[in-house]
Amino acid sequence: MFVFNPMERNITMQTELLKVTGMTCGGCTSNVTHALKAVSGVADVNVSLSAGEATVQYDEKQTSLDQLKSAVKEAGYGVDATNTTQKPEGKGCCCG
Ligand SMILES: [Cu+2]
Predict the structure, then answer these.
(1) Which of 16, 39, 65, 87 has the fewest CB atoms found within 10 Å of its own CB?
(2) What are 52-84's pLDDT values in tens digits?
(3) Is pLDDT of 21 > 70?
């Protein structure tokens, strides 16, 4: 018997909320946005300056949370996943 299940697909999109520290202006948010979008497998990025958060939608088959975090760090900002207990660290600003 054939059953069509629309939920059963090869899509493994994850949405992760990252705490980003060190952002102080719109240039910072676009730096972080571009850094995250440059990671292969990232489908969508939404960075909030006021909240200090980045919402990232990504394919967990192509990338990982660690890669997202290192992309933010390479851009010069501190990052922390909201589901870990690590302390956030600020590393300065694009306009410093
Ligand atoms: Cu800035």
Answers:
(1) 87
(2) 999 999 999 999 999 999 999 999 999 987 754
(3) yes
In the chain, pLDDT over 70 holds for what percent of residues?
76
> Please, which residues have CB within 8 angstroms of residue 58's CB and are 6 or more apart in sequence?
13, 14, 16, 39, 41, 42, 43, 68
Is the pTM higher than 0.90? The answer reads no
Question: How far does the centroid of ligand 1 lie from the alpha carbon of residue 31, in Å?
Answer: 8
Residue 12 CA to ligand 1 centre (angstroms): 33
Q: Kindly give the distance from the C-alpha atom of residue 66 to the centroid of ligand 1, in angstroms, as a whole number.
A: 24
DSSP 23: -
Distance 52 CA to ligand 1 centre (A): 12
What spacing in Å lies between the alpha carbon of 10 and ligand 1's midpoint? 38
